[in-house]
Structures are given as structure tokens and as C-alpha cells.
User: Fold this.
Amino acid sequence: MSFFSIKTDRSKYPQGGEDGKLQIDLDSHKYVKIWQGPNHPGVTGNMSVELTLAGDEVVEAKTHVGYLHRGFEKLLERRLFIQGMQTSIRMCVAEPDSNEYVFCSCVEELAGIEIPEMAKWIRALILEMARLQSLLRAVPGQGGTFGLGVGVQWGIYMRELVLDRFEELTGGRIYHMFMTPGGVRGPLPTGFKKRMEETLKEIDGFIVNIDNLMFNNAVFKKRAVDVGVIDPSWVDKYGIVGPTARSLGFNRDVRKNYPYLIYDQLDFEPYTTTYSDIYNRTRVRWHDLITTVDLIRQILAKMPEKGDFKAETPNVLHWRIPKGETYVRSESSRGEYGMYMVTDGSEKPRRVNLRGPSYNNGIAVLEDLLVGANIADVGAIMVSLQVCPPEIER
Amino acid sequence: MSLKDILMPFKAWGNVFKEPVTLKDVKREGAPRYRGFHKNDVATCIGCGTCEAICENEAIVMVPVEGIETKNGDSGLRPMVDYGRCCWCGLCVDVCTTNSLSLSNEYIWTTNDPEEFRFIPGVVDKPWNNSEKGWTKPGPNFSYYGKERVPMPELKPDERDKSFIEIVRGYSKEQAMKEADRCVECGICVATCPAHMGIPEYIKAIRNDDLNEGLRILYDTNPLPEICGRICTHKCETVCSVGHQGDPLSIRWLKRYIADQQPAENYKKILETEKITKNGKRIAIVGSGPSGLSAAHYLAQMGYECVVFEKLPKPGGMMRYGIPEYRLPYDALDKDIDYIKSLGVEIRCNVTIGKDITLEELHSQYDAIFVGTGLHLGRSTRIPGTDHPNVYQAVDLLRDVTMGKDIPATESIVVIGGGNVAMDITRTLARIQNQRYGKVNIITTSLESEKEMPADHEEIIEAREERATIIPGWGPVRIEIENNKIKGLHVVKCTSVFDENRRFNPKFDESQTNFFAGDMIVESIGQGMDISYLSESIKENLKFNERGRILVNEYFQSSLEWLFVGGDIIQGPDVIHGIANGHKAANGIDKFLSEKA
Amino acid sequence: MKSLIDKLGKTFDIKDIVYQRPNLAFVTVSKEHVLNLITNLLDYEGFSHFVLLSCVDWIEDNAFQLTYFLNNPTLKIDIAVRCFIDRNNPTMTSAHHLWKQIATYQRELKEMYGIDFPGSPGVDENFVLEGWDNIPPMRREFDTKKYAEETFFPRPRNKTNDPKEYMKSKMYPND
Assistant:
């Protein structure tokens, strides 16, 4: 199946000059500059890639962000700790709950608050549901970049079902704002477990359908296999995490390696492959879907029936946290998602810095991975790295 | 690549025969917890503005609403939400002090006019105003601030019932910080405080551990913080917004904490009163109670030379001669008074106006006079038998205790009255009985039922802890006297004290009677003023209101422009009104004298 | 973790060691030694995963704090290396040769804090702020709200009333 992988003779292109940069003379009529995005269907969100093409092959790629910079990290420096939760979640639309969790967790760690057992389970449940809804868009979305829209439509429908459950549990569909420094803002609603199980059953069927539609699909395979191959040495060099690292054989899963909340009480094994092309990266995510569905079932079965869901906090209107700094990480659907928080003893954080997987994936990795790729695969490669631009610009 | 890979995707065609999942024109209801448009129960809401304080988007503004009156405990403001700013996080609901604010599960409503997306929930008529569903505060115990008061360390009943040492020990730093942390800084309490003290500000100073600033804030409006921190009637605590869903803040104890922590010798430095430029004008103040001292303090601060005339041997008025030592120890009292003295205020004790010096004489020597002589005459029930020598007035007995006189406490005593003075005399006599006879036998009865009793509730509880018997709801009829000795008090059941206009008009059920045995009766049903020191010529020129009180303007200036009157004889009776009167009168005197000059 | 820090302490002048969690330590070294230390951690101690490069503005101390987060995926421990640089002349040696993504972090810090990393690829290019004409926005003295109000045209917030002041005006205006 290697007939589609093109081996290009790179010697015909200009080599790097003295400073190592490519010498591209656009006036030579050998090259074309194309801007993919910021509003291109193959671009996940508002980001653009400046491509320099020779024929249909990319010789240079440059990521441009800045289309939705909202300065959230700056805003968080001007918010009370209780208000930060609502601002922090907006740093990533696709999976806001990881923001919520790392923010609250940072605050709790620096303030020395231990959250109740029940809150830990509900938080884990929310994080897994968030991963589920994120993957329900991301996995079929990979097919979407090749024009396979059917899976996307199914996925969106399934995602809506999960959002219905979110609405029931948290009162919100996209932004849940359900975690709060000290715990969560409510217990499980009555009958929630039953309705969640019904949703999971639907998703079980969807997972099988997607397997048939995408992973046993000749067209998908032709477009995805051996395209956008990442070398294992890149993992450390570029700081690759999460599913992308796992597709390279590195078992990097924060839930497993640095268990937080109640993940040490759950039974799961992150899926890994050893060869990272678009196909395998998507396959890893598809396996993550299965793992996530299983984890939600485990959480619902193992979580306590009753219990406090919020620890006592000082009065949030003038909550001061002593000087300190910490870094808390969690595993989002895209990989290690961390927050660095510095407090200075005042009512507001001194610095909040988000470490999202897209930051590396969307710029350093993407720019190098696109070199040599076919123009038609640019969108697919980007989606396979699951780049979420809001999280780069914050 | 295999044949399977070509065929498998065609399985998707199986979906052709499925029901479409799209819903058409269906009005889908939000989940029961959905966070939609706001609802507000405007009758419960007190307009404390905590929702506004927590809103990170400044989506909530507090606006006046027609028909909602600004009164004690209710600012008359209600939250208006700007839905162009709201992010529906619902923190306003979770933090609401009265639980009046909630969210509905309505999310479909829309309109063409952007202005309509700014409205006052609960006031503007919306279809979801009465909807049951939507986000409410999660659980009764869910709270973003401490609901329970930090308990005050107190002496146990058996440690205190024989002596007059102070019961309340005061907060430690840690306790005070924790209690101060509960404040939501709404400021509703300030209007209710007669002196309008900067309550949220000094509580904030405690949180910041900046007690110097705290003391400065206290002295802005109240020159007797040690005293008020102990015996203030704390009307502020009755309106505290935190008290709606939990215990109100211990505002009084926090005030005491600030004053307690500062040694007296630091006061002048902290309050920046080491150097006061005198303006050469002289003011005479009659009476060294709270109003007189307060007036003297603020006048002295402005540079006036003040002389206070006191009839009794020591300054303090009712604070010294009315309030028992176990509630207000004399050293705390002296700390506040000594500071006022250190500002250059001269206090001349044992001087009776009208006898040793007349008001006219004072008028000729001083530029203005402030009179705050208080209520020191005990009122009698005038029931048959009250002329017996073993029937006493509570204020007289309390004064004698302070003066160190021998108190005629017998083995069984009946006290008539339900106010704080009645509790003071009850507990004082109980202590004396305990010291003398080793047991307590005292019955206190009041017209009012237990709920209506004007005494502070904790006073009643503590009196009972000290083994006094409190029997509310009985009206005294006559005193049983046999062989010239008191046997006890006959009472009838009192069914109501006030009529529908809240006027004093007690009703009795004559069929229910009772008898409280005792060989000594103490009356404590209120006090009257003694203004016999006013000469006839002054009285002629003074105007009185229909209740017999001297008529004063907002600066407590009487119709004789050089004579200012304040304290219990005008308003009250309590300490904090006296302080407020004195402060206002000081400002009035300053205004009067500077306008005259 | 502790033995590792002790070992490093023999070679480097490490100050202010804080064990935030059993697997996360914060250390401070001088500006000159940061690169040596993180190179050492990468080459000899297995800290192969670079997590984050961040900056904290301590405006009152006239210093920027740079924090390099390194992770050892085998031992599952993190070290955060802090250094303080002069706020008036914020320059730092570039570390882009150690990990690829550091160039992006440094480009962002140049833009957001004005910290220069000479030699870092593309460090002078705009990152997210195209055509920015103000001081670097993440610096503490930059007032976001003021800037937004001056630059854009927000719909003004309705007039609000402070309950305390409002009650004063209604109930005791003359006191």
C-alpha cells in the first residue's frame, strides 16, 4: 500500500542558505504562495497556514495565529479566584472542562483545600464526558477532511446527545462552569445514570459504524495511510503529548502516569501504535473513544451514592491565596493540558499560564510536518494533530 | 487494501431506513438545571448587591425599583441584568444572600430590540417568572461564604454566677479574621446603625490585619468603641444580609476586637490627635454619658475646649452606673474615657447642675452648651403596694452596686420588667444572692411574651443559665403585704401588649392569675428624665413635643440656639443613639459657632 | 527527587527550593546558569519533555521571572527552573536549540512581555498581535480595560448604585 507515498527528490529544490533558511525566490515563478485559512473548512478554527508550494507540494509552511486572541491569561490576572473559572474555560471551546479542572485544581492546591470524594468522581465524570464529546467531533472530523461528511453528521448528532446529558448534569451545554474551587456545584440529578447509559449505548453503535465507515474504507486508507508521518524522535524534540505521542509508541497519558482525581481507581489501558501516520493517529483516537465510554461506565458504577460535593472555602468575594506557584496537568482529548499558576497573596492570581497541546502541535510540529506534503493533505494533517487555535492564543 | 475495505463503508446505507433524528419546530424545554434567564423574588431580595459583586462581566447593576421602599435592611435596589454581558455562570444565584435569585430554564425567548435584553428580573413581567425549573442554589448547605458565626468564648455559667468578672472573653486574632471573612461587604448595615459606622470598612481592616486603620474608622463615627464593642444593641446585626441564610456577622464583637487589641497609649498616635490646634472657644457639656462624651470628643478634636459636668462621682453615666460590671468592666470604660480626657477634655465630677452651678451661669461662661443628662428616674407600675420600702427601682439598685453600697438583696426577689435593665438587675441580684446565700431565688416577670421581650435574647438565655427564673407574659396586679412584710406579687395573664397600631395597650385575661412569692420587689419597667435643673425661664423658652421631649432640630439644637440637647432624653434609650446624637450635636455646635463668628 | 536536587546543587548554585508536590520541585538559579542547568537535566538526567516556558512579571521587584518546566517521563517527576531577569533590560539567552517549540514560546514572550531572545528563530515576528503599537500587553502596567475602552466602542454599562451610598442618600442624606 505504499504506492501512494510519494518520494520526492528534494535535491531539485533550493537548499538552505547560510542561516539555514530556505532561499525561495517567489519571482522565479516556480513557487506559489497560498494561504490556507483562517476560514478554510480544513482548518479547525481561526488559524491560517501560509504555504509555499512547488507544484502541489509544500516546501514551506508557516502558521499564523492571532485571529482570536482574547487575552484570557491577562484577564485572569484581573479576576477573583472564583471568577477565574468562567474565564478560564473559554480558552478552549472544544473541550472547556479541562480548563475548568486545571484552574480549580491550581487554586485548591495553592489554597490547601482538599475536595470531597464525591466531587472527585463528578469531576472525573465531567472530564470523561468532555473527552467523549470532543472525540465525537474529532474522529469523524478526520474523515471530514477527506470529504467523508457522513461520519461528521453522525458524530455531531452523538455529540448532541452527550451535550444533553451535560445540560442535565451541569445546566450548560458547551460551557459547563460546573466545577468550582472547592468541588462541584451540585450532585448527580436523579435518573442520570440511566439516561447516560442510554446515550452510551447509542455511542457504542456509532463507534462500530465509524469503524466500518472510516477505518475499513479504501478511500480513507488511501488518503490517510503513510501521510503526515511523524518520526519518533520528534516526541521529545517537539514536546508531543497525548494521542499523538501514543501513536508513536510512547505511552504518555497523564491519567495513567500522574493519576489525578480518582483515575487510580479505574481500570484502563491507553492504546498505542508504533507508526504515526494520519490513519494511526485517528485510530488511537477511535480507541480513546472506546476507552472513554468504558471509563464513564466504570465511574458511574463505582462512584459513591451520596456525599458532600463542595468543601468549605473562605468567602469567595475576598479570597486571598498565599504566595506560591504550581503546575497542574490533566489529560485532555488532545494530550497533556496543564496550567501554571502563580499567586502573590492577593485576591487575584499573579499569573496564569495555560499549556495546551495545540501550542506545540499547531506551530512547531505542523510547520515541519507539512514540508513535503501534498496540498490536498494539509487540512488532514492539521486535523490529525487536533489543533485547537483558541488554546494557542489564549 | 482489500475487498472488505471497498464494501464496508456501504453499511452506512443501512441508515436510510432509520427515523431521522432531526426535530422540526419543536419547542424543546431546557433541562431542570438549565441556566437560562434570571428570576428574582423581589419581595425576598434585599438589594444587597452581592450578585453584582461576584459578577465577573459587570452584567448586573443595582437600580431603584418603583414601589420598593428603601428601609432598614433593604436598600430598595434590585439587580438589573444585561444579557449582552451575562455569561450564565449562575454565580449570582449561588452567592445570593437571601436565596431570592435563581435562573429559569428558558432560553428561547428573543426580541428585536436590544434594549429589551436589559431588564430587572422579577419586576419586568416575563413568562418564566413563575417557572419552577431552572438553576437554583445547589443544596441548602452550599455556600460561598461562612454561614455559621465563630462562637465567642465565654465563661461557663458556674464560672461566672458568683462574681462580676466579664463573661465575654473576646475574639482571638484567628477567630476575628475568620469571622470578618464572612462579611460580603454589602453595607446594608450602615444605614441601620444610628451612628452610621463604617462597618464593612472596619471589618475589612480586620481581614487586612490593619488594626490601626480599623481604629481610625471606628473613631470616625464612634469615640467609645470599647464600650460599644461590648454593650451596643447591635441593630446592625438584625439587618445583616449574611443573617438571611445563616448567622449574622458578629459586628459588635469585631468592633470590640479592634479596640481590645490597641493599647491605650497608642491611640493618640494612630488617630493622629497628638497635636490639636485650639480655637479658643469653650463648650460646656452636662452629663458624661455616651452623648456627652461623644460630643466632647468630636468638639475637642475640632479644637474646642470642653468641660464636662457630671453629677455622680465618676464619669460614664448609665454606662458606669446602669450596666453591670460583668457586661462592661470599668477598665474598658475608663480606657475610652481616658482617651477622650487626653484630648484635653476636662471632666468635673460631683457637680450638679441647678444646685452647684446653674445653666444660666454656664451660658455666660461658655460659647455653647450640650446637655445629655439621660434617663435616671425609674418608673413605677403604681400598683397597690409599691409604696412599701422593700419595693425598689432597678436603676437605683444598679447605681448603688457600682458605688459600692450595700444592696438590700433578700433571699427571694421578684423583678417586674422585660427589658435589658430588668435582665441586668436580675442577674446582678442573682450574683449577690449567690454570694450571700449560696443559692438563687429570683423571678423575673414581664408583660411581653418571650418573643416580644425587648431584652436581647442572649441576655434571657444567660440569666436562665445563672438560675434566675424568667416567666414572661404576666401583668402585675398588686403586691401582697402581710404584717408589713411583702409576701409576693399577684399577676394576671397578659394576652397582648400592643394594639394593632403598635401602641402600648396591654390586654389581660382576668381568669388566669398567678402568684410569685418573694419578699422584695424590683421594678424595671422603664425610666424617665429628670430635667429639674432647667430653670423656669429656660423651660418657658424651650419647645417640647407632644411626648414631653425637648424639641430639637437635626443638629440637636433646641429652640434656644446656644443649647444643644441629645442622648436618651431625645432618642433611644441606648448607647449608640447617644453617640450619634453627640456627634451630630458637635457638628451642629461647630456650625452654629462658626456661622455666628 | 530530593537526591536529584542535592546532586544538582553540587554543580549549580540552586536557591529557593520548593517541593510543591512530591513530584514537582521549583528551583531558582541565576540567569547565567539556567541554560547550563536545563541542558544538564536534558542530557544527563532524562528530563526530555519540555513542558512550558512561562514568565511572571514582578513589577514591584523590577524583575521578570522566567520559568522553564521540565519533565522526566521515565521517573515521572517535574522540575521548574526559575530565574529572574532585569525588567528594564529584559534579555535572555535563547534555548531554541534544545527543543523545537521553545522558539514559539520565546517569540510569544518577546511580544507579550518584551523579553528579547537574541538568535531565536522568528523572535521578532508578530505572534498574535499584528500591528500592535502599545507596550507589551502582558506587562502588569498595561491596563486591558482602559485600552479596550479607548480602542473599541463598547456599549456602556448601565449606571449602578452602591447599596450603602444609595441608602444614605435616601435615609440620612445630611449626616
